[in-house]
Amino acid sequence: MAAKVDTPMADGGGSYVQRTSPTMAAPPAKITLHLGVIDIPYSAYPSQKVAKAKKGKANKPVKASSGATKTTGDVAEILEEKYGILDSFAFARLPDIAKALEESISIELENMMTGAHVSGNPFKSAESTIATMMKQFVSSQAIEHMGIEGVPTQAALNGVSHRLKHPYAKGNSRRPSFMDTHLMVNSYTAWFD
Asked: pLDDT tens for residues 160-189?
């Protein structure tokens, strides 16, 4: 005895209607890409060595500020709210993100089929590639050509860099926007759920 199977059928007028089988599971879950930073505290600057005091004067070492330490997460939230750095990256590089995801899954599938070691995270390669693309997006100044108001930032144009002994010196060369200490950009990460 043959069982009757509900198959897709053409209804009158030539339109196609997909019939769902009661044995079909729910549609596959969505893959969500998360862009963010690894939360690292910005350490307070250590005391600087001070030149020898002039006769009759005392030089005191510069002390680190005692205020609360900000983290890369705090700074990223502020910058994302004001400039939309990660949103702009995702919009500009969506085809590259999709290609990285496709290649990552393809590699894992090929490894599975050939019996090679499978990592357990089919998106691992894509996550690494996307994090690298995020870093390059800022360091190559690509974000400065997205038409975002206030970008390039005035601090970048003035060459403000806290990696230098004199961060606000007029002779400092221009730097990419959002790369003052490089800590936040270097902590960019991407992961899939």
From this structure: 998 898 999 999 999 999 999 999 999 999
100: phi then psi, degrees, rounded to nearest 5 = -60, -40
Every domain of the chain and the residues it spans:
33-39+69-192
Give me the chain's average pLDDT, please: 82
What is the tens place of the pLDDT at every residue in 84-113? 999 999 999 999 999 999 999 999 999 999
> Residue 18: pLDDT above 70?
no
* Maximum pairwise Cα distance, the chain: 110
Q: How many C-alpha atoms does 136 have within 13 Å on its Cβ side?
A: 9
CA 134, CA 144: separation in Å to the nearest integer?
Answer: 14
Q: Is-contact 135 123, C-beta < 8 A? A: no
State how far the Cα of 73 lies from the Cα of 118, in Å rounded to an integer. 32
Distance CA 4, CA 1 (A): 10
